[in-house]
């Protein structure tokens, strides 16, 4: 992935995480969907999501909201655990995502409010989104 595209992916996650971390938990719970959809409309990302640590609640621009089936816990995904354990933003190696079965990369960052880990914020970009951005430029 070209450096400028990688930087845009990182910038989107950093910007959104700063908004979330600067506000209180009540604000975040009420406004996370709005924040995700705003970033989604202004970016070329495939999927933007947040997973809460306390209960596994997931919010995403892909139409996922709430607790997922008992057979799937996003907190057990490598992206989640890697970002949480690294205590910083991570960029994944390319993988085939479950959302649209396309080769993707993710930027995932742990989120803290008042010093307490509350979950992760992530953004995926697939090869189709990347190609459309390159064609647009």
Walk me through the structure.
The chain is an alpha+beta fold and 137 residues long. It has a single domain, classed as PAS domain (Beta-Lactamase, 2-Layer Sandwich). The protein is built from 4 helices and 7 strands. Strands 1, 2, 3, 4, 5, 6 and 7 form a 7-stranded antiparallel β-sheet that branches. β5 and β6 form a beta hairpin. The longest helix is centred in the N-terminal third of the chain and has 20 residues. The mean pLDDT is 78.
Number of separate helices: 4
Please state the second-level CATH architecture.
2-Layer Sandwich
Strand tally: 7
Low-confidence stretches: none
Task: Give structural attributes.
single chain; 137 residues; alpha+beta; globular; Sensor-like_sf
């Amino acid at each position: 992935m070209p450096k400028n595209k990688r930087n845009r992916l990182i910038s989107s996650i950093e910007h959104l995480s700063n908004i979330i971390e600067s506000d209180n938990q009540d604000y975040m719970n009420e406004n996370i969907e709005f924040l995700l959809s705003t970033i989604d409309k202004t970016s070329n990302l495939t999927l933007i999501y947040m997973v809460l640590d306390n209960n596994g609640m997931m919010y995403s621009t892909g139409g996922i909201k709430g607790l997922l089936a008992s057979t799937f816990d996003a907190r057990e995904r490598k992206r989640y655990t890697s970002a949480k354990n690294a205590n910083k933003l991570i960029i994944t190696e390319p993988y085939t995502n479950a959302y649209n079965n396309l080769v993707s990369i993710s930027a995932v960052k742990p989120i803290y409010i008042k010093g307490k880990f509350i979950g992760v914020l992530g953004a995926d970009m697939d090869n189709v989104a990347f190609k459309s951005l390159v064609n647009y430029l």
